[in-house]
Design goal:
Elements (H helix, E strand, L loop, with lengths): L32 H14 L6 E5 L14 E4 L5 H11 L4 E7 H7 L1 H10 L3 E7 L2 E2 L5 E2 L18 H4 L5 H6 L6 E6 L3 H19 L5 E6 L3 H4 L3 H15 L3 E5 L16 H8 L3 H4 L14 E9 L4 H13 L4 E8 L7 E9 L13 E4 L2 H7 L8 E5 L14 E5 L1 H8 L5 H13 L4 H11 L3 H24 L1
Parallel strand pairs: 1-2, 1-3, 3-4, 4-8, 7-8, 10-13, 13-14, 14-15
Antiparallel strand pairs: 5-6, 7-9, 10-12, 11-12
The structure holds iron/sulfur cluster.
Length: 479
């Protein structure tokens, strides 16, 4: 097949990233990404796959690749390209899925995703761009950084003792059964570019034939972070990098492979219920959902506190109890990097209708278990909303609260009296139920029984629930 050297049709004519339509890329002068982009675009056009290609744009220097390829593309969270591509592959078996990932994306944060996708033999062609550093963020050490190579985080050079050995990703991929083609190549010289061009075209032909997973590691030069001129960087690949990462076709058994066929019949909801063995009474928890106390179709809730205060379980318990009343529910936990002592949030949406999003910004109901939570979230609760706060830990309220109901409950103290401070979350939920009538004491107790299988833990939480419930009912009566 003749090699086409003009602009491939799967490249845009101009790049719209900047207001002035530019003809050059955003990459640094002498970067290897541009060459690889061109080779991939040529192969897509040559195989006439432009309309079927979906390219996963990673986090890294190549994050903007969708400005160059005139194909469908998706911007993917760091390292998750194979997971997203897998999902698309299941729904669109004819799609040609291209994962374009760098060292940090594939060989660090996304290694598990990459290896499992390869091991499953997903219909994905992966380009692993190995330039030995984190390029976009300023040249930190990557798993692929060479021994003795200086980076911003290894200013004395990477050592075996401190940082371990460079990660040979292509070699690892080649040990798996499922990939049909695994190779390492480079784009630092005309000779290597020609080899890479042929390899990429072979990979796309395999994708066209539906032959499963292809992995191509491409040694690419990063003059900027290597602190070299483009010429020096290209030479360095030949003289140094390839000694650690040899250019090699590790595996190619594409010719003997059959196209991957994943035709599992998909049924509708009734078939799924049957396959799962769900009984009829479990499909519908209670017929028509009852009206919500706020008189609308949807009620939003946020629980907040320190990690370790049971904020996530609090939301889960509320969601489980609400589900038993045939309401639609979502539960969305979130927390800071540290699980214990950091911030933790539970967002719950309860609705009589299907829920569009589990995200809660301005909750109708807030349970704040610590002071930072009420200062941060309390002012967001609307006038008709309710705030229940843990007065054992909150001795001051923000001045700008507008919620119609603001009730303190000494949740930590009442929980301690019930047997353990850890049950402060259950006290707070009991108090909320007592004030609002959103849930009955019996409904929460039923959910507690399902949540806590150990009798002692269940009994403790039941006592905590009752203490909070009584407090809430009194507050509701006083109001
Ligand atoms: S930092 Fe390196 S990899 Fe990133 S664009 Fe510049 S040369 Fe290319």
């Amino acid at each position: 097949m003749p090699i086409v050297l003009d602009k491939p049709s799967s490249f845009f004519d101009t790049f719209h990233r900047k207001p002035t339509q530019q003809k050059t890329t955003h990459y640094c002068p002498g970067c290897g990404h541009g060459i690889l982009h061109k080779l991939i675009a040529e192969a897509i056009s040559a195989a006439e796959l432009q309309d079927r290609c979906i390219i996963m744009a990673p986090v890294g220097c190549s994050v903007f690749l969708y400005y160059y390829f005139e194909c469908a593309s998706i911007s993917i969270p760091h390292g998750r390209a194979p997971a997203v591509a897998t999902g698309i592959s299941r729904m669109r078996p004819d799609a040609i899925l291209v994962c374009y990932q760098g060292d940090g994306d594939l060989a660090a944060i996304g290694t598990n995703n990459a290896i499992h996708a390869a091991s499953r033999g997903e219909k994905i062609i992966t380009f692993f761009v190995n330039n030995n550093v984190y390029g976009m963020t300023g040249g930190q050490m990557a798993p692929t950084t060479l021994l003795n190579q200086k980076t911003t985080t290894t200013p004395y050079g990477r050592t075996l003792e401190n940082e371990g050995a460079p990660l040979p990703v292509a070699e690892i991929m080649a040990t798996l059964d499922a990939p049909g083609l695994v190779a390492r190549t480079a784009v630092n010289s005309p000779r290597n570019i020609q080899k890479t061009r042929r390899l990429i075209r072979r990979g796309f032909e395999a994708m066209k034939d539906g032959k499963g997973y292809v992995f191509i590691e491409v040694l690419s030069h990063c003059p900027t972070n290597w602190r070299k001129t483009p010429e020096e960087a290209c030479r360095w690949i030949d003289e140094v990098v390839t000694k650690v990462y040899p250019l090699k076709l590790f595996k190619d058994d594409l010719d003997t492979r059959e196209p991957l066929c994943r035709e599992h019949p998909r049924g509708g909801f009734p078939e799924l219920v049957k396959a799962l063995g769900v009984r009829a009474e479990e499909q519908d928890a209670g017929g028509v959902p009852p009206a919500l106390p706020n008189g609308t179709d949807t009620l939003t809730f946020k629980g907040a506190g320190f990690g370790g205060q049971g904020v996530l379980s609090l939301g889960l318990l509320l969601a489980n109890t609400a589900m038993r009343k045939a309401w639609e529910v979502t539960w969305l936990p979130s927390y800071g990097p540290e699980m214990r002592g950091g911030v933790a949030y539970s967002s719950v949406v309860i609705s009589r209708k299907p829920i569009g999003s589990p995200v809660v910004d301005c909750p109708d109901i807030l349970i704040a278990l610590n002071k930072p939570s009420i200062f941060k979230l309390g002012p967001l609760v609307p006038e008709q909303g309710t705030i229940v706060y843990n007065s054992s830990m909150i001795d001051e309220l923000p001045p700008d609260l507008s919620a119609g109901t603001v009730a303190g409950v000494p949740a930590t103290d009442l929980a301690a009296e019930a047997g353990s401070q850890k049950a402060a979350n259950t006290v707070a939920l009991g108090c909320l139920a007592g004030i609002t009538g959103l849930l009955t004491r019996e409904e929460i107790a039923g959910a507690l029984r399902e949540t806590y299988s150990k009798p002692a833990v269940y009994d403790l939480n039941l006592r905590a629930l009752d203490a909070g419930w009584r407090h809430g009912v009194r507050q509701g009566t006083d109001a």
